[in-house]
């Protein structure tokens, strides 16, 4: 079959981009045909983001170029990318919360010098688009009130509204329930049927196999594998992505003994009023991992914040090793033997502009080991950091390296090391593997499993259901501030968890989506 | 033209950038000097000689630098914790008021006791001035930029009130000035016949102390951590509010000492023209020093030298001495651009 250039919606030709000594993109070439879904698969730091920034004109390539529909894109010009019909849906949505869906769509497309705006036309176009793409949404709804899945629909509609013919989706399922992801995939298939081309950026193997026609795997800035999806297996892709074979951690039989942490009828509301907790009852034994599933924003973060000491419950009791804790502060939690792995490691885990030796002792600066009478002992801190680097396999770093220069995986290893070397009785791990590359994910999971063997009680909050099913002894689901009973993992599967995450079994069937 | 982030700034670039910034500043001000109709090289020569060309000139420059070291430190310490203390001017005046209240005859102590007492009293007064805004910030979330800035005007009016009332010197022939500091309370001159006084040594000691606190104490560690990432600090169990309050006490205290140093070391009595904006000048000094306590010494002397030298230039070739303000402002701007270039690379396509 001869391919004419008009079949090609987007062509990336020999794109090379270096940041100092780091070659972020090394002669990357691939095509996206009309009506095709191409998955761009790769770990963090593989060069996906840099490549998309070049396609979108935020960066200029050192060599190579990008063609859209057979025409060269002017490098370094986002307007040119938009005009050529390239639309992007970012992982973090770029929507104005206080405007309606329609207003968000019209933003940036109206002529500035007209004193009025033509809403009727815009609404009519939106109606047609929704119908064609099968994306149902109320144009008058305020974006701030929409669910995450609905916001994503608005983002896609926004791209379509601007006549996107190539749609780039950056980790689109990270914030969705399995059911929402399924409906997203249905939408994408419909769009492809209408002749759109889609670039689907992800590091989740399952969904890539599910949705893509063709798969391009990036590693260290290079295309290491390009193949049709048909016949591809998870193992092939994982090996290409990481460059070596991976063995998932084995949990072994249950070892729960006694009660490490008990929550009793915990009620709370977050400071911004977005999250609430209602009557949370939870028990974690020594040597047990209890997993919490749930769509982001259903109270898991607030629960973690309370146990980490940065949020205050309204009612209810917290017992640690049988001792009642009235109200936890961060320092109180540390003193009581609670190890904390925060959800957002950049924002709350490390001080990016401090070095590793300082970050390693951040939680223990008042400790005898690292200071006396208010004077620091930097040498002890450096020794401690060097030990963490060696024991937790933090790569490419010395105690004097600034934390912000660490990759996500190495930063998480630092935080995990800081927690685990204190042998905590309880570990609160909130999204401990989010955004990490496959190798680091396995490392973190193995370390948590090892801590469980050593008798720690672990609360594992995760959006990755595979991870929860692999790593937890028992799993509970949070929905609108309530926690389901925690059931043994053998009694659960992804489908059941997905339904519960959407509200099934919480007695509020009218709200289930 | 576009900016791209750098991973690492090479060492030679970090060294060249401040020098380049100064050279660009000189080039920019040369244009203004030419515009004023003066010969550029002679003007700069006069300025250089006026600032550091003789023992007398150096003495004058260091005298001028003394209050700027204090206020520069005050700004540097506070800014490190992201506590935006714009109120060093007011804290300086309150320090001077404290020194005046205690040092004009109310206490009859020997010099070895009275001098330290005045410094400590001034520091406490300055610290108290910043404790208020810091508490408002931590308890109620009031923006400290607004409160510290506005307090400056309140303090200056308050000092005016004192100088017309309770603190007015009965022997002052009706001028709005306070009684002179008693000889026992004066900061001794470092050389006879010169104006440089022991306040300069105190300023150096404070810079050294601030540096040691920053580099080696747990408080300095907490201040830095809170300034660089307050969320992570709070999560790690560092008392953010407490740290900010301690920062405020240190910063305000050092600014208060500037007032004591000026009134008891140089001027002799409190007037409303005690400070020609040393509090604000300290912000420039701190920014030029990239908030490093020891760097503050160097940049304070640089800024003082520009002002003292500009006076000499003004006398010699008739360029208005306002050129000093322009040079200092321009050097701050070129420095900010230079720092940007350290973090980003310029691309021309």
What is shown here, in short?
The complex is a heterodimer of chains A (513) and B (349). Chain A is 32% helix and 26% strand.
Instruction: Outline the biggest β-sheet of chain B.
Output: 2 strands, antiparallel
Assign an overall shape of chain A: globular
- What is the residue-averaged pLDDT of chain A? 86
**Class computed from helices, strands and strand pairing of chain B:** mainly alpha
Q: Give the strand line-up of the largest sheet of chain B.
A: 1-2
Share of β-strand residues of chain A: 25-35%
User: Can you tell me the number of structural domains of chain A?
Assistant: 3
Instruction: Let me know the average pLDDT of chain B.
Output: 91
Q: What would you call the quaternary organization?
A: heterodimer
CATH topology of the largest domain in chain A: Rossmann fold
Shape of chain B: globular
The first-level CATH class name of chain B: Mainly Alpha
What does this protein structure show overall?
The complex is a heterodimer of chains A (513) and B (349). Chain A is built from 17 helices and 23 strands. Chain A has three domains: 5-242, Rossmann fold, CATH 3.40.50.300; 249-337 and 425-513, 3-Layer(aba) Sandwich (Rossmann fold); 346-423, no CATH class. Chain A has helices at 48-55, 78-83, 101-106, 119-133, 148-161, 178-193, 205-211, 234-242, 300-308, 330-335, 345-349, 356-360, 378-391, 408-420, 438-453, 465-471, 494-501, and strands at residues 8-19, 22-33, 37-42, 63-68, 71-72, 86-89, 166-170, 197-202, 214-219, 222-228, 257-269, 276-286, 288-293, 315-320, 323-325, 338-341, 371-372, 375-376, 426-430, 457-461, 474-479, 482-483, 487-488. Chain A starts with 7 loop residues before the first strand and ends in a 12-residue tail after the last helix. In chain A, strands 13, 16, 19, 20, 21, 22 and 23 form a seven-stranded mixed β-sheet that branches. Chain A has a six-stranded mixed β-sheet with strand order 6-7-8-3-9-10. A four-stranded antiparallel β-sheet of chain A has the order 2-1-4-5, with helices on one face. By secondary structure, chain A is of the alpha/beta class. Helix content of chain A is 32%, strand content 26%. In chain B, helix 7 packs across helix 8 (218-228). In chain B, strands 1-2 form a two-stranded antiparallel ribbon. Chain B has helices at residues 11-35, 40-52, 55-80, 88-103, 111-140, 144-164, 198-216, 218-228, 230-235, 240-267, 278-288, 293-317, 323-343, and strands at 2-5, 344-347. Chain B has one domain: ABC transporter involved in vitamin B12 uptake, BtuC (Orthogonal Bundle). Chain B is globular and about 70 Å long. The model of chain B has no long low-confidence stretch (mean pLDDT 91). Chain B starts with a strand and ends with a strand. With 349 residues, chain B is mostly helical. The A-B interface holds A 19-22, 59-60, 75-76, 308-310, 329-331, 333-334, 340, 342, 347-354, 358, 362-363, 365-366, 371, 374-376, 378, 405 and B 2, 4-8, 216-222, 224-225, 228-229, 231-239, 347, 349.
């Amino acid at each position: 079959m001869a391919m004419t250039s008009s079949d090609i919606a987007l062509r990336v030709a020999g794109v090379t981009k270096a940041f100092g000594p780091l070659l972020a993109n090394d002669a990357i070439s691939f095509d996206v045909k009309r009506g095709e879904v191409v998955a761009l698969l790769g770990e963090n730091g593989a060069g996906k983001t840099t490549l998309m920034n070049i396609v979108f004109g935020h960066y200029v390539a050192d060599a190579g170029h990008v063609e859209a529909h057979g025409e060269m894109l002017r490098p370094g010009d986002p307007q040119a990318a938009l005009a050529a019909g390239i639309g992007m849906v970012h992982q973090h949505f770029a929507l104005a919360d206080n405007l309606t869906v329609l207003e968000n769509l019209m933003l940036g497309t109206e002529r500035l010098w007209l004193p009025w705006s033509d809403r009727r036309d815009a609404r009519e176009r939106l109606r047609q688009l929704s119908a064609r793409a099968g994306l149902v949404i109320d144009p008058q709804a305020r974006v701030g009130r929409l669910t995450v899945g609905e916001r994503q629909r608005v983002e896609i509609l926004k791209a379509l509204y601007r006549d996107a013919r190539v749609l780039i989706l950056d980790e689109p399922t990270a914030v969705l329930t399995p059911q929402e992801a399924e409906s997203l995939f249905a939408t994408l298939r419909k769009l492809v049927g209408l002749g759109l081309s889609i670039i689907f950026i992800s590091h989740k193997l399952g969904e890539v196999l599910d949705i893509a026609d063709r798969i391009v795997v990036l590693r260290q800035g290079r295309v290491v594998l390009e193949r049709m999806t048909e016949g591809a297996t998870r193992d092939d892709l994982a090996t290409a992505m990481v460059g070596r074979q991976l063995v998932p951690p084995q949990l072994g039989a249950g070892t729960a003994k006694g009660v490490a942490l008990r929550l009793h009828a915990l009620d709370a509301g977050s400071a911004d009023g977005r999250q609430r907790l209602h009557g949370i009852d939870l028990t974690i034994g020594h040597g047990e991992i209890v997993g919490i599933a749930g769509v982001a924003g259903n109270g898991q973060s607030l629960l973690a914040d309370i146990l980490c000491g940065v949020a205050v419950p309204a009612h209810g009791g917290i017992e640690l090793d049988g001792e009642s804790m009235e109200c936890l502060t961060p320092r109180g939690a540390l003193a009581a033997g609670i190890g904390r792995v925060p959800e957002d490691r950049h924002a709350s885990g490390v001080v990016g502009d401090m070095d590793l030796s300082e970050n390693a002792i951040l939680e223990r600066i008042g400790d005898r080991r690292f200071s006396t009478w208010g004077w620091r002992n930097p040498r002890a801190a450096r020794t401690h950091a060097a030990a963490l680097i060696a024991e937790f396999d933090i790569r490419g770093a010395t105690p004097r390296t600034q934390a912000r220069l660490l990759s996500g995986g190495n930063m998480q290893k630092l935080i995990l090391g800081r927690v685990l070397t204190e042998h905590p009785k309880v570990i609160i791990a909130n999204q401990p593997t989010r955004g990490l590359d496959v190798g680091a994910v396995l490392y973190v999971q193995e370390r948590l499993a090892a801590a469980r063997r050593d008798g720690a009680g672990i609360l594992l909050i995760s959006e990755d259901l595979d991870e929860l099913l692999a790593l937890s002894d028992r799993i509970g689901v949070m929905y609108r501030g309530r926690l389901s009973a925690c059931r043994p993992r053998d009694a659960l599967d992804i489908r059941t968890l997905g339904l519960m995450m959407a509200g099934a079994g919480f007695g509020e069937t009218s709200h289930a989506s | 033209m576009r900016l791209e982030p750098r991973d690492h700034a090479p060492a030679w670039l970090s060294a060249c950038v401040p020098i380049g910034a100064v050279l660009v500043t000189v080039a920019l001000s040369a244009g203004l000097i030419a515009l004023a109709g003066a010969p550029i090289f002679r003007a700069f020569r006069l300025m250089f000689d006026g600032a550091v060309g003789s023992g007398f000139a150096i003495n004058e420059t260091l005298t001028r630098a003394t209050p700027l070291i204090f206020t520069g430190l005050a700004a540097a310490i506070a800014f490190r914790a992201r506590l935006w203390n714009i109120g060093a001017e007011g804290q300086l005046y309150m320090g001077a008021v404290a020194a005046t209240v205690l040092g004009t005859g109310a206490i009859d102590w020997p010099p070895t006791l009275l001098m330290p007492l005045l410094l400590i009293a001034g520091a406490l007064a300055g610290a108290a001035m910043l404790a208020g805004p810091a508490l408002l910030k931590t308890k109620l979330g009031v923006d400290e930029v607004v409160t510290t800035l506005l307090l400056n005007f309140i303090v200056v009016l308050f000092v005016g009130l004192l100088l017309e009332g309770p603190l007015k010197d009965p022997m002052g022939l009706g001028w709005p000035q306070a009684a002179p500091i008693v000889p026992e309370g004066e900061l001794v001159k470092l050389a006879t016949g010169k104006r440089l006084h022991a306040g300069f040594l105190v300023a150096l000691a404070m810079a050294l102390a601030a540096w040691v606190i920053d580099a080696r104490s747990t408080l300095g560690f907490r201040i830095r951590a809170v300034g660089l990432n307050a969320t992570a600090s709070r999560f790690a169990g560092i008392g953010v509010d407490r740290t900010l309050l301690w920062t405020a006490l240190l910063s305000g205290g050092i600014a208060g000492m500037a007032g004591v140093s000026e009134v008891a070391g140089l001027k002799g009595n409190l007037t409303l023209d005690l400070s020609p904006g040393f509090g604000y000048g300290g912000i420039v000094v701190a920014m030029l020093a990239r908030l490093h306590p020891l760097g503050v010494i160097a940049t304070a002397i640089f800024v003082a030298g520009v002002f003292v030298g500009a006076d000499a230039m003004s006398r010699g070739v008739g360029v208005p001495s306002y050129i000093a303000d322009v040079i200092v402002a321009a050097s701050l701007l070129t420095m900010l651009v230079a720092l940007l270039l350290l973090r980003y690379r310029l691309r021309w396509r």
